[in-house]
Specification:
Bound molecules: calcium ion
Helix content: 10-25%
Strand order of the largest sheet: 2-1-4-7
Structural class: mainly beta
CATH class: Mainly Beta
Shape: globular
Largest sheet: 4 strands, antiparallel
Number of domains: 1
Number of helices: 1
CATH superfamily: Crystallins
């Protein structure tokens, strides 16, 4: 019964946000997979990405478990991140996981040349 409800919540989130987006509409039991910080060293305001339902990334980082973009307010703003739910995060210069990128990091204190340049992410 519980699993059936969670599956329904996942389907609803997918329908609202489109394929491939991890940023689901608020629903019960969403899982935090990443927190992005405005400043280096995990400082400043934060932007949290969740995946619908109770879920996590798989242990290998050769697969892609989730992808996300950023709200317009957070486009080209983040400077560091932490991954949650077993997720390592790879950040990209452009939307749709395009342009320059950094390697996967569970936690990174500064994006360096990509500070304030990041527009999308992949979670694994
Ligand atoms: Ca994985």
């Amino acid at each position: 019964m519980i699993m059936r409800k969670m599956a329904a919540a996942l389907l609803g989130a997918t329908a609202l946000t489109g394929a491939g987006l991890a940023t689901a509409a608020p629903a019960q039991a969403d899982t935090v997979i990443g927190i992005f910080y405005l400043n280096s060293n995990h400082g400043g305001s934060t932007y949290t990405i969740t995946a619908g339902g109770t879920t996590s990334c798989t242990t290998t980082t050769t697969d892609s478990n989730f992808t996300s973009g950023f709200s317009s307010a957070w486009n080209d703003q983040a400077s560091s991140h932490r991954g949650y739910a077993n997720c390592d995060i790879k950040v990209y210069e452009h939307a749709g996981q395009g342009g320059a990128s950094l390697p996967y990091y569970t936690s990174i204190s500064s994006y360096g040349v990509l500070n304030d340049q990041v527009s999308s992410a992949r979670y694994s």
